[in-house]
Amino acid sequence: MAVDASSVTTPRDPGEEPGKRGWRDRGGDRERRTTSWTALLSLLPLGLLAIACWYGQYVRPSADEWCFLPRVRDQGVSGLVDRFYNVDNGRVANALMVGAYAKFGVAGHQWFGPVSAVIMLAALWILTVLVLRRLGQRVPLGIPLLIALTVSVVFFFACVNIYKTFYWPAASVSHTMAPILAAAVANPLLLAHGRAGRIAALVLTVVGGVFIGTLSEETSMIVLVVGGTIILFAHLFFTERVRGYIRTWAGCYMLGIAVGMVILMTSPGSVHRRQRYGAQSTTDMLSPHNLTVAFKAYAHILVKTMPTWQYLGAVAAGVILGLVVRSAGRRSTALKPVRPLVLAGLGALVCLVSGYLCTVITLPVFGSRATSTDRVWNDWLLLYILLFVGVGVMLGRALRLRTNSRSVTGAATLAAAAVYAGVCLSLVAPMTHLGHQMHVRAEKFDRQDAYLREQAAEGKKTAPYTPTRVGHMLEPFGMKSGWPVQCAAQWYHLDKLTHGTRIP
């Protein structure tokens, strides 16, 4: 996290003598054992991800994708970018990512889940490795992967609607991938060495900020909150030698976000979207009445999401990390010692403020549906999951530093592993149940798809369509407005679809 600097000064690990390599030499067997059971524990979230990716073959188009597919087929990705910028919402980067999977038709939807899962897991894994390295901490092999898997699995599957979070490509691009990609923008900073490396990191950060700014408004708001917090409170965490650069980096990220949001908000598509939904002006949106309504809506959302007991899996993984992490022996030249309660309290405040502001900016579009449009919560829920992991790390490290008893730390590790395993196993049933529903829907969809294509091939201009729903997704004839009936008809080269009552 710093300029050519690596770690926080940490107390010597229990039992490690001055001037000796200690834990690495005398604890080699213990580290190998830790690596072994960590690998076994990682099989649980890996297995869950594998099951989820396998069910990706049953994904079929829904909602917005009925309109994306024919446009990309007929006009290419550039046609979709033009549509987003001039008509729909102004999200240029979003259009590029949507076009990347829509150009492959139904197969693109099927492969989106597995491919995006690999990308997001890799981004979190690299971020974890780089953070630990910059903090000057050493962990057994497999621990960074375990942490990345934990964040991924809890984020993807311990949620209100797994389908919209993981399988629905349009929602995942905007609200699942977006916050993870935003976190990955920190990777160039963590990799930077030397003057050229630091300058390159700043340039990449600005570019990344512009991309995120035209990808997701909610994630952009979160970056602004986190960046502002870094600038305001850098004196609490960073030494004077690197404080200026860290603040410059945060400022560059915020600048990129601001540029991206200006591009988005001033686009004809964004203006049209606000007019279409009757969204208020910025002045009205920030009025005391609307801020109060947003606060009540946010409180309602928190009541629905925070009791999710599977979040304990994130805490448990953090405890395991805190129990096994060891100092690499390098003194810090970048970070100040910080009281854990101060760090946790500030992190909680950032989470609360970010979530509230995201609710403020979504309320004008969704209105009362903001408390039920669960896909837009994911942008800020990732912050909470990261906070839970961090709290777990503090608890595990505090326990390790306050006891010399291996039996105590061993029992704590075993308890954390048991909780972690329980969380992973509890997510299997909802996943398999959804997978069965997706399979049933896919079979119905494919029969109807073949029928509609036959009708078009025979020269028919009209054909019946029966909605096939999964995961509370919208389908043609699912709304009074008829959306997206005409898009589906265009996809099948028909002039019109009528509301059918049975699958052919």
TrEMBL record:
Residues 1-30 are annotated as: Disordered. Residues 1-10 have a biased composition (Polar residues). Pfam families: DUF6056. Keywords: Membrane, Transmembrane, Transmembrane helix. Residues 13-30 have a biased composition (Basic and acidic residues). The chain crosses the membrane at residues 36-57, 111-132, 139-163, 175-192, 199-215, 221-238, 250-267, 309-329, 341-366, 381-399, 411-431. InterPro entries: DUF6056. The keyword Transmembrane helix applies. The keyword Chloroplast does not apply. This is Uncharacterized protein. It comes from Streptomyces beijiangensis.
